[in-house]
Amino acid sequence: MYLEESFRRAIGLGLNGDGLTVPEIACHLKIYEHTVRATLRRWEKIGLGGLWEAPGRGGKRKWSLEDIHAIEQWLGEEGSYTSRQLEEPLAVERGISLSSKQVSRILKKKDYAWKRLRHKPPIPKSRSFTDAKRADWLMLCQLANDGLICLKYLDESGFERTSSLNYTYSKRGQQKSIYQARRRGRRISVLGFWEPQHSFEYGAVVGGFNSERYLQLLESQANLAQQRLEQIGKITVIIQDGASFHRSKKVQQYWQRWQQQGLYIFFLPPYSPQMNRIEDEWLHLKRDELCSQIFEDEYELALALIHPIQNRADKSNYSVERFIFNHV
């Protein structure tokens, strides 16, 4: 156990008075022998004052605890500060001059680390509306868990021919690399319907989705919903965000007929991806299946998408069906 220095010196003097030698005292207190001898010399020279620390000889620190509290308050606000960006407010508002290296050392001592910022969705304009929609969503989830309805999650995700680079294992001192594609090309968009632990249905197109392609997929889901309603009496609810082609005037003309077929649409509140469980499927596809891969063309990328989607289904024992679009 580490003792306060003045207390340690007093114990050392007491042990010396009891007849212990310098090596024995050093061993007992777990300190160096020259430290024991220095303590004895200070006792002989200045007496009781030799127990206490002498005033420091280095430069005095320029900052105070209030300055650190001000830095912590700035860092707690929205936005980002580098150690260099903290120099100016310290000089202007606190009247102290510290270099960026000094600021960095102070922050490390206060248990701050340089980390990557994470993006989060904007704050919703109407908190009460979001809370009400979340309550409805939780009720739908409970009904689905009880087997009373069929609940599916719909979302679109884009896949590039050049996947984002990721970390990999490599020998120390060596740098692994992959070649870039000759041209960027167009992305592959996938619109999927995810019924957790039951099925994953999707359609893929080059480019993006529009109302016509969306309607083809929803018409197929409406037909399945009608069969389900007639056979087992369950309605189907599709959870989706409020993308423009989800709410177009042309699409709205189908809503009433879809409900008659047993298909209902539940729109999520803005900026609430955490309620759309298909987001996890896109994350795993991009991070675990397609990361750090380069594809020569859109056709090769489309083929590469089919395998990991089927692979995830085989591992988790649910069905997969790919929708083939009519010419639009």
Would you summarize the structure shown here?
This protein has 328 residues and is α/β, with parallel strands linked by helices. The protein contains twelve helices and six strands. It has helices at residues 5-17, 22-29, 33-46, 65-75, 87-94, 100-109, 127-145, 211-232, 249-252, 255-260, 278-289, 298-316, and strands at residues 150-159, 188-195, 199-206, 236-240, 263-267, 319-322.
Number of helices: 12
- What fraction of the residues are assigned to beta strands by DSSP? 5-15%
The tally of strands reads: 6
CATH architectural designation of the largest domain? 2-Layer Sandwich
Uncertain runs: none
Tell me, what is the CATH class of the largest domain? Alpha Beta
How much helicity do the residues have?
40-55%
Mean pLDDT: 83
Number of domains: 3
CATH 4th-level superfamily of the largest domain = Ribonuclease H-like superfamily/Ribonuclease H
Helix/sheet category: alpha/beta
Q: How would you write the strand order of the largest sheet?
A: 5-4-1-2-3-6
Helices and strands, in N-to-C order? HHHHHHHEEEHEHHEHHE
Q: CATH topology of the largest domain, which one?
A: Nucleotidyltransferase, domain 5
Largest sheet: 6 strands, mixed
Shape: elongated
Radius of gyration, in Å, reads 34 Å
Report the span from N to C terminus. 79 Å
